[in-house]
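Quick one:
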Amino acid sequence: MVRHNTLSARNFRIGVITPSTNTTLEPILCSMLQGTEITAHYSRFRVKNLSLKKKDIEQFSLNKMLIPAGLLSDAQVDIIAWFGTSGGWIGPEKDLQLCETIERKYAKPAVTATISSMKAMETLNISKFSLVVPYERDVTHRIVKNFKQFGFSAVNVKFLNLTDNIVVGKVSSNSIAKMVEECAKDSEGVLVYCTNFSVALIVDKLEKMTRVPILDSVNVTLWGCLQKLGIKRGLKGYGRLLDINPKWYDKPMHN
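Output:
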């Protein structure tokens, strides 16, 4: 069944930077954008394991990420978005640096999953949140610490202790939904923080179940793109953030 989600009077191209091992993002975005005037165009760079080891951190170096950004610029996309959550454990300041460099080098607006997540929580007045991730304990703790420095306290945390991103993409949406349901209590919202997790299409269902906002990384980054592109209409069927499409909170990020 085709969703008719007309968002604007013109066509937009979203340039998507994604890890080489992400297997869920493309089909999810394709489904979400079907029937709109927005198309997603992808460029990958090598990412295999997710940990705090030096070699795994170096996968996300600025120089490596600028290569797919430049290829997307060749396609004359309207915006370049890093649909990945590495900023959560490496540091949000790295995502800010990536966006600033892309905007300066390629004259394209830029967003990331981490920046969009924090902006979404600011916009929805969420300061106490529950965190659902696939990552190992050390990565998860680093995410909690970095979000805390920006004013967001994780009151409940669920993690799967995974490091192989291919394995992450195989986690079922039912398993993730169960994690969301178990940790939603006593929080103002749930952040499902991984763009290789497959719950973006059932956020509406999860919100009805938990009665709190569910901020899935894919949905949140897409929202960030809509905001940067100046698209004011919402996208129905994927949770209240995209549905109501609230204006991006303009306060500068600082810890």
